[in-house]
Each structure stands twice: as C-alpha cells, then as structure tokens.
Design goal:
- The complex is a heterotrimer of chains A (300), B (399) and C (314).
- Chain A is an all-alpha fold and 300 residues long.
- Chain A is 74% helix and 3% strand.
- A two-stranded antiparallel ribbon of chain A has the order 1-2.
- In chain A, helix 2 crosses helix 7 and helix 3 packs across helix 9.
- Chain A is globular, with a radius of gyration of 19 Å.
- Helix content of chain B is 45%, strand content 19%.
- Chain B is elongated.
- In chain C, helix 2 runs antiparallel to helix 9 and helix 12 packs antiparallel against helix 13.
- Chain C is mostly helical and 314 residues long.
- The chains are: A mainly alpha (300), B alpha/beta (399), C mainly alpha (314).
- Chains in contact: A-B, A-C, B-C.
- Chains A and C meet through helix 4, helix 5, helix 10 and helix 12 of A and helix 5, helix 11 and helix 13 of C.
Chain lengths: 300, 399, 314
C-alpha cells in the first residue's frame, strides 16, 4: 500500500487502537501481578479465557449484555485472585528460594500447573467446542471508516479501564502504595505500607482486568478452553517490551504492537506479520535490555 | 434300586449334558466378545475444538451399530467397543498411540485420527504392522506419495483438484477478476499453489494475492487492499480459526464482491453461530456432501446427527468420518477380521456410502468429484459440479 | 553436597539404567521402545538446558529453537546426505546460531531474558514459516525414514552425551565459574571470572545437543510442520522437568524426567482431561512443598540420616 494512504487511513487507525487497547488491558493485569510479586503468571491468558466463558454464558443463557455483565465478571475475577493469593501464592512467597533464578523457574512452574488445571477443567466442564455469539455487530460508518459496534465498545471499555487504573496508580493513596511496592518493596515495608494488602489487591485487580478482557474478547472472537495461550504470549511481549512493573510503559508498548500489527503489515506484507512483531520485540529488547521505557532502578 | 449300568448311564448322560452346556456358553461368549476398535483423537491442545466433528460421528456410529446388535463379522453380529486415547494435538503422540493400540492393546480394527498431519504420520506404523485403516479427514497431494495398501483416503478435496474445479466454477459464473488470500498452513497453502496457475490459465485476473501466518489477529490491512481491488470473487483460503475473523472483518469493511469463498470453516455448523446467519449466507466452501435422495442414508445420517448433538454435522469432516466407517463396516462384513482380506476388499470393491459410490484407485477415491457447497437459507447446498448439485449458485448480496 | 546417598548409589542407578535402556529394543514391543525413545529425548533436552539455565541462572524459555533448527535441517536435506552427517551438522548449526545471537542476547537478564528467549524462538519459527511459504512449500514429508531401533540408539547416544556434558560442566572449573556468576554476576566479574565468555560458552554448549535431538526426532514423525517443531510446549516441559528434578548437576534432570514421565505414562492412558488436571495439581504441590526439587528431597533425607548418626554417637 502506498505510504501516504497507509498513514492517513482512519480504518487502520481504528484497527490499531482496538487491537492495542485489548493488548493493553491484558498486559495491565500481568504487570500488576508481576510488579508486586515478581512472578510470571503464565496462566494469565487462561483467566482471559474464563472471563470469555462468563461473558458468553451471561449472554447466551441469561440474555444479559456482556457490557452489563462485565463489572460482575471482573468482580468474580477479583475474588478468584484474592482467594488464590491467600490460598496459594502467599505460600510460594514464603518458601521462595533466595536466588531470583530459582524463583523465576519455580513461579513459571506454579503458574503453568495452574494454567493446565484451568484449561482442562474448562474442557471437561464446558466441552472443548468453540463458542461465539453476535452482539452489537452492526457496522457504523463515519466518513470512510467502518467500525463494528462491539469493537467500538471494546475499545472504549478497555481504554477507559487502562486510563482509570493509570490514574489510580498515579493519584490515589492506595495507588501510590501499590506503586511503591512495585518499585521498591523493602522500602515500602519501612514506610509503613501494608504490603500484604497491596499484594492481594494488586492480584485481585490483575485477575479482574484479565476477566474483563475476556468478556470483551468474547464479543469479538471465537474461543475455546485452549485459546488462552496466545493472550498470555501477547501480554508478556507487551510488559517486557514496556518494562516490567511499569504500567504506563505497558500501555505504550501495547499500542505499539497494535500499530505494528496493522500499519506494519500494510507497509510491508501480511506474510511478514509475525516476523515483524517478534522481530521488533527481539530487536527492541536487545537494544534496551530492561524494556523500552524502563526506569533506571533495578531491583532483584 | 437301579442297576449299576443304568446309574452309570445316568451319570454319563449327566456329564455329557454338562459338557454340552459348558460349550454352549463358550460359543455364545465368542459371539458376545466385543470388537475392539482403536483410535486417537485430540481432546486437549490447540486442535481439541476441531475434533468433535469427527469423534461425535464415531460415537453416533457405534451407538447405531450396537443398537442393531453389532457389527457383522463372519456371519455373526458382535458389539463394538472403542479404545481411544488423547493425542494432545501432537502427531508424534498419535504415532505412539497407534503403536500402543496395535502392539499393546491389540485392537481388532483401527479408525483414523483427525487431520492430515496425523494420518500421514501414522501411515508408516500401519505399513510396518500390516494393519489396514480407512483414512478420512486428510487432504493433501502428498497423500498420493503414501504407499498404497494400508491406508486409503476417501476425500475428493485434494488441493490440485480444488484448484481446477474452483476455477471451472468461477469461469462458469462469469468471474473475470479475483483476489486470493491464504493462510500459510499446509492445506490452504497447497490450494493456493495450484489455484493461481489455474486462474491464470483460465484468463481470470488475480488483482491481489497475499499470505498470512496462522496467528494473525487483525486482517484490516489485508482487507482494505482487497476492497480496493474490488474483484468479482474473493477467495479466502482460511482455516477455521481465521475464517471467523475474516468473515467478521469482511463485514466491517463491507466487502461487496458477489463470489465469496472461504476454504475451511463454513462446512461446520459453528460458523453460522459465530458470524450470524446473515453473514454466513451465500458463502461458498469446500465439501462434497449434502443429503441427497440419490445417496442412500444421507438424510438419515443428517437427521440422526442433529437429533443426538443438536446441530448439523460438519458437511466435510463428519461426512468423511461416516463414509470411512461405512467402508470399514462393509469390508469387515465381507472379509471378517482378517487383515489381508479386509485390505483386499477395501482396495478393490466399490462401496455405497452416504456420499454415493466410493472406489479406491491406489490411496485415492476415484469416484467422488471435487465439489463446493454454498449456504442457502441456512442450509448447505452442493452448487458444483452440476452432476451432483442440490442447489444453484447465487451471488452474495452482503455480509 | 549429597555425598552419602550421592555418588555410589547414583553410579549404580545410572549403570542399571544404561543397561536396561540398551536392552530395551531387543526385548520390548514397538510401543515400549517408542516410550523409551521419548524418555531419552526429554533427558537429552533437559540436561542440555541445565548446562545454561541451571548453571548460570539465565532461565531460557526458548530451548525449542535449537530443536526446531535441527529438525528443519534434517527435513530440508532429506535424502541428499546420509542422515548421520545431517544429525551432526544440526548440532553445529544450532551451536553456530547460539554463537551468533549469544552476545547480545545474554546481555539481557532475569525475566527479560526468559521472555526474550521465547520471543527469539517464535521469531525463528515465523521466519522459517515465511521463508517456506515464499518458496512455495506447503509441507514436507519424509518417506523412507530409518527403523525405530536406529532412531532409538541415536537418541540414546545423545542422552548419554548430554548427561556426560552436564556432569563434566558441573564438576569443572568452568562450572564453578558459571555458578559464581549465577550467585552474583558483578561480584564474579570483579573476581576475575570471564563472565561474558563463560555465559556464551554455556549458551553454545547447551545448543548443540537439542539441535541434534531435533534432527533425530524429525525421523520419527515423518510429517513436518514448522509450528510443530517449534512448539513452545517443548520449552515449557523441559523447564518443568528440570525444576521438578532440582539441583544443578546431572542427577536432577534424570529424577525430574523420569518422575514426570512416569506420571504421564501412568495417567494419560486413562481419562485424558482428568490426567492433565492431576498433573497440574502435582506441579503446584511440588513447587510449594519441594522448592528444591527431588534432588532436594533426596538431600534432605541424607541430611536427616547424617543428623541422626551424629546424635546417636555417645
């Protein structure tokens, strides 16, 4: 496609924003969990999958609009996060081996075990069949940009949530406490932050945003018990690219990925879509080993 | 008091009676012993959402066969029992499972796993142990390189034939320009390799052609260019995962070409559920079956599937699975459980199936034509070739 | 150091294992030989992974990239070269690739390194996919692959090689250097350990064997799909086996591989979905109860025995 056409295309902009905002929402939760607990939640995509099922059931069985059900589903996600934190992850932190390398490996394994359980329990309970439904699928045209209603809704909800959480982290006392634990946990203890409370609330918030992303996804895509992994991958690419624990940078990185997915393909070829994405990721990380917008402080 | 001779006679006849009674249960037990049929199926992993169309069909068949009293083997009816394992969507695992089924579980018969990579991967195992198996949901020109004798493929959806027939169908409907977009995965890539030269030969201009990786999440860039090209026909060589994505984004961008073809996806009832009846309407896809009065049992199969599973069978995969079962059943009725006899019967005979007559020439089906179906008023109708058509091609008005 | 239970019992177990595995193809049916082959494959992959990730603490989530490169080489050169040559060449190819990307890649640390290696494997996967499709290739099939026994003994050799490599590395001065940089890279460097060079060597060493393993396994499944040989699950499973085993020498992976493998074999033949759930539960339990893996468990028992021996003395 000619460069000027690409850059001025409103259609591509819309697609980039929708893709980017959903990546951002998924990455948000992942960043919060990692930021406070230093654990790589490889089950994150499966939480998105569960959220998708919740949205699907709400709509197909109860006739409730997924947008209306979304807060409730997010709430359930938060509850699950809280329960898992108290029941499982606190123990992990307690037995955490001293060196970071083993902690890395151990947490990978723990969350991987969780992922297996979630996927296969879902397959057993819900059957492995694909699920999808139509909601808000009328197409709106503004100028020469066509937008499906559910994609606009997803963009708005995901965008609002990300901005909301960013404001929360930046402005509110609770948010600042969370950020302090993310940046320097030991120091947070010293200044009297209730670290345990921050940890479970960031867990809950992380799981809630994953569940919310799932509900939004259920409007847009088909899903099945094993379709969570791509979301986990996307989430990790984003948070590493932005810099771990840096929520704002994560949002930027997510938009960047959305841009590559749309504009990058338009300027080169669809065949190179994944090569571009991973190539940019690897290239960026080799140049910026702590992420694109990493803070100077390294905490190990 | 009875004489010793009559006592002895009484005892002897008693023993004789007992002996006869002992053998009768044994003879009955021989008939009662179920036939064990083994197969592997992906129940976990990335393909788990695709295999139900096939495993459901297997289950339906077993139910029907056992309701009839069992499979006919050497004049007797014996019930059918399945021995099945999860291959976790990995062909290497399927190889191990079939080795286990043959050498460890020692099953009587085998059914095919789902998909081309799996059926090709186990072909050497079947050959090594001289165990015949009727394939089904496998389609690739590479199938012709598989040594004939222990595996057969009833499908007519072979990519080079698809290229020829699709072009012929387009030509017959006055298509002058086309766009081809293809997933790089084997089946769709193969189709593209054969389709484009055919289109060129037929004088149909390919205005835009591209490929994309299987993990694509957004097709806006591709479809914007497709829309700009404004062709008569859009040939989306997509797999089930991206066919839904394609349809939704085609709707968003408002692709208005009258001929809309999606390679894999719409033959499954799920497609219409995912994109909505209006979007699914008039989309053409690959399948060579639809209930036809000329094909004995086709309507019965369709209705039985709907009754048991609450949705239409997959017109491609479920039909193929059922055909392979019919062929196996006929072969066993004729040749018993002797593997070399079964092999001979399958290689030589012509079988009557729900898809009409089937006969194998080497590994391939020599009779069933390569065909395409189109969703019309929510039902899939065969629109090409005319010889087996159940409906007339109509242009797609909108998404 | 687990010295009591350690070396003698270990040596005996290894000898028995080697003898048993050598005899397997001659006494067992194809299914069991295939099972043994898979066990040896995981052993080779996990041992080689540990050479880098356990010794240096740089946890790689992209180990499958070497495997995939080896498999691809085998498929691309099929029937043009004797397969033994290709297997060796696959090891060289993988090692060269590691040498090429090692320096910049190893500058990245911690969880960044984890996801970077994952991204690298995916990048190679999709690049090969794009190259294949650009050349018009849809799929590749290998006809006329060697017999299972040949494949089996090739893998046996690789498993022995991998175990030997890890044993040598963990006992050498090189290994000590790796451990020192795992504990504190900056301090090690200050003390004169050539950190950058050592990391790179470990990386390259860890790459050669999975390359060869990939080439051998390509002979097994005949139908080659790019996505299948670059499957991230392979990388994840290797990590799981290594963590379950624990430790940073050759003992851990053997325990981890055998343990996970046994569980899988016992369970998968039965209820497919339930087995996976049980597996997930076992993994979680392990991490919580045995953060030092099976080796740690054996070590703890040794320590308790020693403690009791000390107490028993008058």
């Amino acid at each position: 496609m000619p460069v000027f056409d690409v850059l001025s295309s409103g259609q591509l902009l819309f697609a980039a924003l929708v893709t980017g905002s959903l990546y951002a929402l998924v990455a948000l939760g992942l960043n919060l969990v990692y930021g406070t607990m230093r654990m790589l939640n490889v089950a994150h995509g499966d939480l998105v999958m569960l959220g998708a099922y919740a949205g699907y059931w709400a709509f197909s069985i109860a006739g409730i609009s997924p947008l209306v059900a979304a807060p409730a589903v997010a709430g359930l996600g938060a509850l699950l996060g809280y329960a898992l934190y108290k029941g499982l992850f606190r123990r992990l932190l307690a037995v955490a081996p001293a060196d970071a390398g083993r902690m890395e490996g151990n947490s990978l394994l723990l969350f991987f075990g969780l992922s297996i359980i979630l996927q296969n329990a879902a397959a057993m309970l819900f059957t492995p069949n694909n699920r999808a439904y139509q909601y808000l699928d009328e197409v709106w045209r503004v100028g020469n940009v066509a937008m499906t209603g559910n994609r606009i809704a997803a963009l708005v909800v995901a965008g609002a949530t990300c901005i909301g959480v960013a404001l929360f982290l930046g402005r509110s006392m609770a948010g600042l406490a969370m950020r302090s634990v993310i940046e320097r946990r030991e120091a947070a203890y010293i200044v009297g932050v209730d670290v345990d409370r921050v940890q479970w609330s960031s867990f809950a918030l992380g799981f809630a945003s994953a569940a919310l992303a799932g509900v939004l996804m259920s409007m847009l895509e088909q899903f099945s018990p094993f379709s969570g992994f791509p979301f986990t991958i996307a989430g990790f690419i984003v948070i590493i690219l932005g810099g771990l624990g840096n929520v704002m940078a994560g949002l930027v990185a997510a938009l960047l990925l959305g841009v590559i997915e749309t504009y990058g393909v338009a300027l080169t070829s669809a065949n190179l879509r994944s090569v571009l994405l991973y190539g940019c990721f690897v290239g960026a990380l080799l140049l910026f080993p702590n992420g694109l917008l990493a803070r100077r402080s390294t905490r190990k | 008091m009875k004489s010793p001779t009559s006592n002895r006679r009484l005892v002897m006849s008693g023993i004789a009676a007992l002996a006869v009674m002992a053998t009768v249960p044994a003879a009955l037990a021989q008939a009662d012993k179920p036939i064990r049929i083994g197969y592997s199926m992906a129940r976990t992993g990335m393909l788990a959402n695709a295999t139900p169309s096939q495993s459901n069909t297997y289950e339906l068949w077993k139910e029907q066969v056992n309701a009839r009293g069992g499979m006919v083997v050497g004049g007797q009816k014996r019930k059918v029992e399945f021995v099945t394992y999860d291959d976790q969507s990995k062909p290497e695992q399927a190889v191990r499972i079939y080795e286990k089924l043959i050498t460890d579980d020692k099953v009587d018969l085998l059914l095919a796993p789902w998909g081309t990579p799996f059926q090709i991967a186990i072909a050497p195992v079947l050959e090594k142990f001289k165990f015949p198996m009727v394939g089904n949901t496998a389609a690739s020109v590479a199938l012709r390189q598989v040594k004939p004798g222990y595996i057969w493929f009833p499908t007519s959806a072979i990519p080079d034939r698809i290229g020829v027939e699709l072009t012929a169908m387009l030509k017959a409907n006055n298509v002058k320009t086309a766009v081809v977009i293809a997933n790089v995965l084997p089946f769709t890539k193969e189709i593209k390799n054969y389709l484009e030269p055919e289109l060129k030969k037929a004088g149909i201009e390919v205005k835009f052609s591209t490929e994309y990786p299987p993990d694509i999440k957004d097709m806006t860039s591709i479809l914007t260019q497709v829309k700009q090209a404004n062709p008569d026909a859009v040939l989306a060589l997509a797999y089930p995962g991206d066919s839904v994505l394609y349809a939704k984004q085609a709707k968003e961008l408002g692709l208005s070409s009258p001929v809309q073809f999606i390679a894999i996806g719409p033959s499954d009832a799920f497609f219409a559920k995912a994109v909505g009846a209006a979007s699914a309407e008039d989309v053409i896809t690959i399948a060579h079956w639809s209930p036809r009065p000329e094909w004995k049992g086709s309507q019965a199969f369709h209705d039985a599937y709907v009754k048991k599973f609450g949705e239409d069978p997959d017109y491609l995969n479920s039909a193929l699975a059922w055909m392979s079962l019919e062929i196996l059943e006929s072969a066993v009725a004729k040749g018993g459980l002797d593997k070399s006899k079964i092999r001979e019967v399958i290689s030589k005979d012509t079988f009557e199936t729900i898809n009409g007559p089937v006969r194998f020439d080497g590994v391939q089906n020599a009779i069933t034509p390569t065909a395409f179906v189109q969703t019309q008023k929510g039902k899939l109708q065969i629109v090409w070739p005319k010889s087996i058509a159940t409906g007339q091609y109509e242009a797609k008005k909108s998404w | 150091m687990n010295n009591l239970w350690g070396d003698r019992a270990w040596l005996a177990a290894v000898t028995i294992g080697v003898i048993a595995m050598s005899a397997l193809p001659f006494v067992a049916n194809d299914y069991l030989v295939g099972t043994g082959l898979t066990l040896l494959m995981w052993l080779a992959l996990t041992q080689s992974w540990c050479v880098l990730s356990k010794m240096t603490g740089y946890v790689s989530l992209g180990h499958v990239v070497f495997y995939g490169l080896g498999a691809y080489l085998m498929v691309v050169t099929w029937q043009q070269l004797p397969f033994v040559v290709v297997i060796l060449a696959a090891g060289v190819l993988a090692a060269l690739f590691a040498a090429l990307v090692g320096l910049p890649v190893l500058r990245v640390r911690g969880p960044y390194f984890v996801i970077l290696t994952f991204g690298l494997a995916e990048l190679v996967k999709f690049s090969i996919m794009a190259a294949e499709s650009a050349s018009g290739t849809a799929s590749r099939i290998l006809f006329g692959t060697p017999d299972l026994v040949v494949v089996y003994f090739s893998m046996f050799a690789l498993a022995l090689l991998a175990t030997g490599l890890l044993t040598w590395v963990s006992r050498s001065r090189f290994g000590h250097g790796l451990r020192s940089l795992r504990e504190n890279e900056e301090a090690a460097e200050t003390l004169g350990v050539p950190v950058v060079r050592f990391k790179l060597i470990a990386f390259v060493l860890s790459a050669a064997i999975p390359g060869m393993v990939g080439a051998v396994m390509a002979l097994r499944s005949t139908y080659f799909v790019v996505g299948g040989v670059f499957d991230p699950m392979i990388s994840i499973t290797v990590i799981a086996m290594a963590i379950l085993g624990g430790g940073d020498n050759a003992k851990g992976p053997v325990l981890g591989v055998v343990f996970l493998f046994l569980i899988q074999e016992l369970l998968w033949a039965n209820a497919p979905l339930l087995y996976m759930i049980i597996l997930g539960a076992i993994l979680i339990t392990f991490v919580l109860l045995l953060p030092n893996g099976l080796v740690g468990l054996a070590g703890a028992r040794t320590r308790r025995r020693e403690a009791r021996a000390v107490e028993a003395r008058p």
